[in-house]
Amino acid sequence: MQTVRKDIHNSELPILCQSCEARHQGICGAMTSEQLLAISKHTRRVRREPGQEILADAMPIASYANVLKGVVKLTKVLEDGRQQVVGLQFAPDLLGRPFASESRVTAETASDVELCMIPKTALEALMSAGGPVEHRIMMQALRELDEARDWMVTLGRKTAAEKVASFLYLLATHIDPTEETALATFDLPLSRADIADFLGLTIETVSRQLTKLKAEKVIEIANYRHVSINDLTQLRLRCG
Amino acid sequence: MQTVRKDIHNSELPILCQSCEARHQGICGAMTSEQLLAISKHTRRVRREPGQEILADAMPIASYANVLKGVVKLTKVLEDGRQQVVGLQFAPDLLGRPFASESRVTAETASDVELCMIPKTALEALMSAGGPVEHRIMMQALRELDEARDWMVTLGRKTAAEKVASFLYLLATHIDPTEETALATFDLPLSRADIADFLGLTIETVSRQLTKLKAEKVIEIANYRHVSINDLTQLRLRCG
DNA sequence: CGCCGCTTTGATCTGGCTCAATCCGTGTGG
DNA sequence: CCACACGGATTGAGCCAGATCAAAGCGGCG
């Protein structure tokens, strides 16, 4: 699956960075080999199980983190406990709010996740240089803004059936960072409760809509988690 | 109302920029007087009535624009015509998607609006320098991302009553760029239809919730447009 | 095997939508 | 100056998509 890509500078690169997805599309792709070598002395690769908190809302951020594998959900809660997932981060997204002392969201692992932790000071030193690294981070922020606004349409104006279809379509097109086209089969990285919180629905409604898509042969689900998309065009059509 | 603020460099500044809000909090605040003088030769101050399109979705962007006065709504539509307002821009926000050839949203004036049009090439030249101007634009993008995610909670998890209260609270705290505290009285810059599209509700529901807030003495409305907030704490409490 | 947590399925309820009538402020023409 | 028409806003009645409440089903793990 994960093969080491050709890179003319591989010989000068830290071993761990050589096969790293972030080296290509992620922010590390904007660094010179010298910068990469320097920062790699401070980074730390970690693995997290589902349901672990990475950043807490309104808490100081000690580290940024590159998502290397798996899915991280960004959530917000109301005082009374109502929750909304406000974004999903896939490899090779950078986690952490640049230029803010505290996070504005809670970031939690949804699936098994691999992260590359980057100390706040180390990354901010690279950013303040104001070169290609800051630019790459800005591009990610702008992309996230576009995605957030797309999702606002889903939350505000789509039916439950359209919401669930949109969610499956989003996963199919985002879950594999190396793949350009939509994936026909994958494991759901989110529980029904997480999906409900992402779509602004209840668990029961999500379940019923999935059952409906299954009954209509658009998708198949095995073991509650493993999804196969039989008809991607049909799915796209149902996104509203 | 609008007074000329003290600025030690005023004498070197273009006349039009001297009393301009964007000179202070907006992107122009990040420019040197030389840059400001240079770019001011290309900018053009325009006035627009409500309901005018400034940027069209999926269309090339000819110009960026600084909002100097009034409110601009950013909208997206589904094929079947369902519409969602995905953001409101107040002075001194910059309008236009940086580093994209086309807009991802439609921008339309909601109220009477004053804009400072900046040709695409002129602003992008300043940005590619990568200095404080790009940084200031990045800060705006990050703030807009925070706001979009806050609004996702409103769209996905709040009741109609909470949505309307949140909308009024948002206006009270954003409509006047010079004022730090919330405004107790202002004119609604959006029609009931626009408000409904912002909140993911229908016109009728918005109207009923406003009537309810009026009946409960939290607000007053004159002429359908002029709002007075009697009890800001009460309003805040009703935001969920 | 038996418990536990997640998911599905069923029955009922309700907040917000739909459809329809009316109101009201504004602009227009007589 | 008034009569009238028009577009946005309000109000009312009834309905339905999705929420809520409740009861199984199922898979994984000790």
UniProtKB/TrEMBL annotation, chains A, B:
Molecular function GO terms recorded: DNA binding; DNA-binding transcription factor activity
Q: What name does the UniProt record give this protein? A: Transcriptional regulator
Of the GO CC terms on this record, one is: cytosol
Matching InterPro entries? cNMP-bd_dom, cNMP-bd_dom_sf, Env_Response_Regulators, HTH_CRP, RmlC-like_jellyroll, Tscrpt_reg_HTH_Crp-type_CS, WH-like_DNA-bd_sf, WH_DNA-bd_sf
Source organism superkingdom: Bacteria
Q: Does the keyword Transcription apply?
A: yes
**Stored Gene3D superfamilies:** Jelly Rolls (2.60.120.10), Winged helix-like DNA-binding domain superfamily/Winged helix DNA-binding domain (1.10.10.10)
Keywords, A to Z, come to: DNA-binding, Transcription, Transcription regulation
Q: Where is the HTH crp-type domain?
A: 158-233
Q: Which PANTHER family match?
A: CRP FAMILY TRANSCRIPTIONAL REGULATORY PROTEIN, FUMARATE AND NITRATE REDUCTION REGULATORY PROTEIN
